[in-house]
Amino acid sequence: MIKSKKLEIDEHGVNILRNGIKTEHIDFSQIEKAEIKREFYQRNWIIGLLIGIIIVVISFLWLFDTLRSFEYEAPPTRFIRVGWMLFISQFVVFILGIGIVFSSLKRSLILYFWVIGKVKRIQLLDIEKQKKVDELFDFLDNRIEIEKLHVL
Q1: Where do the H-state alpha helices sit in the chain?
Q2: Is beta strand 21-27 parallel, antiparallel or unpaired with respect to 31-40?
Q3: Where exactly are the structural domains of the chain?
Q4: Which of the residues 29, 61, 80, 114 has an alpha carbon 20 to 30 A from that of 123?
Q5: Which contiguous run of DSSP H or E holds residue 113?
Q6: Are 83 and 2 in contact (CB under 8 A)?
Q7: What's the CATH architecture for 2-41+109-149?
Q8: pLDDT by residue (tens digit) across 27-86?
């Protein structure tokens, strides 16, 4: 038996889990074929990448403009606080954009099941961290037709 946060496989079939609750059971006889691929973690990774790059560029230009228009005179105390808060918020937005870019480029192993006209996509991040991918492949290879594609 192989178990992770999103998947549970035993002798009877595959159970798909959401929040630790079994939502769907797929019998091995229903599965036409399966594949394990290394793909992007997010489905629409290009949109996340574009949004992250736009946020990084805008926040960088905003920071550059703020540093270029820096005044050396001593303004009243309340304006100093507002200026520092804006300056710090620009750094926070810049770091957020970098985080979005990195998360959209994250790759992991994905398990695809072809089940009577449908394709089920299950992320194997937990199984990959536990280093049980070969055990999963061997377990499924004895029961269904499975292929390993681009797994490094």
Answers
A1: 45-68, 77-104, 125-129, 133-141
A2: unpaired
A3: 2-41+109-149, 45-104
A4: 29
A5: strand 107-115
A6: no
A7: Roll (2.30)
A8: 888 888 888 888 898 889 999 999 999 999 999 998 888 877 766 666 666 666 777 788
